[in-house]
Amino acid sequence: MKVLVAYYSETGNTEKIAKAIYEEASREHEAHLKRAKDISSETLNNYDLVFLGSACHSSDLAAPVKKLLKGLPESPKFKLAGFFTHSVWTPEQNEHGQALFDKWASKCIDSFESISKEKQIDFKGYYHCQGSPNLRIQVFIHCAIIRSHDEWKAYIQEAPKHPSQADLENASDFARKVMSISN
Prior knowledge:
Elements: E1 2-7, H1 13-25, E2 30-35, E3 49-57, E4 60-61, H2 63-70, E5 79-86, H3 97-104, H4 107-119, E6 122-130, H5 135-145, H6 149-158, H7 165-182
Helix pairs in contact: 1-7
């Protein structure tokens, strides 16, 4: 199987996940790792399976990734799996995680699913994890999302640890599962 792992990353979080997926894919398949800016929608039809990753911007996929998805032809031959990183707690990390994720990152899932449905793409699912926010995003999170001093203290100690080794292993597991159902 020919696999492409393409991603958009500004701070390196999504790139780390992309590399973990690529390492897993390259074990048993012909795999390529590329930045989203280095490919076009037409490029994707050269692959059997495409993992497409994005940073979460304004609670949705980054504009370059959305543009790439919107430019896809209907019913392409490749299968698609998505991945993204975001800066909010996940449901597993915090009692408020689900509400925060739903408000600040869930549009990424909606975009992958709605574009796949619209374009009749065989969508194999998505993986997401927390990433370490840059200073500008930290300020936004502190001012707009996590105002409690105690919760902020816990967040700012935990967030820089991501993507963690466990996040990378989970990304590899995701890739392995997607490839097993895509053969």
